[in-house]
Design goal:
Layout (H helix, E strand, L loop, with lengths): L1 E6 L7 H18 L4 H5 L3 E6 L3 E7 L5 H13 L5 H20 L1 H13 L6 H10 L3 H13 L2 E6 L6
Helix pairs in contact: 1-4, 1-6, 1-7, 4-6
Keywords: Metal-binding
Pfam family, one: Peptidase_M16_M
InterPro entries: Metalloenz_LuxS/M16, Peptidase_M16, Peptidase_M16_M
Length: about 160
């Protein structure tokens, strides 16, 4: 079991940064779909989560091939690229996701409660409005470069691994 949290102070600076981060993580997951398929067949699991303060990478499975899967994810992260078509597809999916959160009373109430309790939190309404105004491909590219330049890493490795 390998878990790394790539923390960046950049994410919480604005609602636009949060939306750009969500877009980035979704595109990265989309890009990994085909190359990581063989790992899935070999009973290796991975998950990319857009956490509140950074990207969480979770990988688990048999230890002899786990480093290869983790390296694949890191390679795709470091050489991040996307096409305009994928960008449009992911932003449309995010619009639907944000909208679906807003129309459910229980999730909207939770979001409003957390907005009141947490300092510096951006509401789902702010994120949805930012996304509806439109994001640019250049803004995403600039955000990803800045994100990779301002990273702090926390990691945990459990299992049959040598130090």
């Amino acid at each position: 079991y390998v878990r790394f949290h790539l923390i960046s102070p950049l994410i919480q600076q604005s609602a636009e940064n949060i939306v750009l981060f969500d877009t980035f993580v979704n595109i990265l997951s989309h890009n990994l779909g085909e190359p990581a398929y063989e790992a899935d067949v070999a009973q290796l699991e991975y998950k990319l989560v857009a956490g509140e303060y950074g990207l969480i990478i979770r990988v688990k499975g048999f230890n002899h091939k786990l480093p290869l899967l983790f390296q694949l994810i890191i390679d795709y992260l470091s050489d991040f690229s996307f096409t305009p078509a994928v960008f449009e597809m992911i932003t449309e999916q995010l619009k639907k996701t944000y909208y679906n959160i807003l129309i459910k009373p229980e999730t909207l109430a939770k979001d409003v409660r957390l907005l009141i309790l947490e300092h510096g939190r951006w509401s789902m309404i702010d994120k949805y409005q930012t996304l509806m105004k439109g994001l640019s491909i250049d803004a995403l590219s600039a955000f990803v470069a800045a994100f990779k330049a301002q990273l702090f890493v926390e990691g945990l490795v459990q299992g049959n691994f040598t130090s």
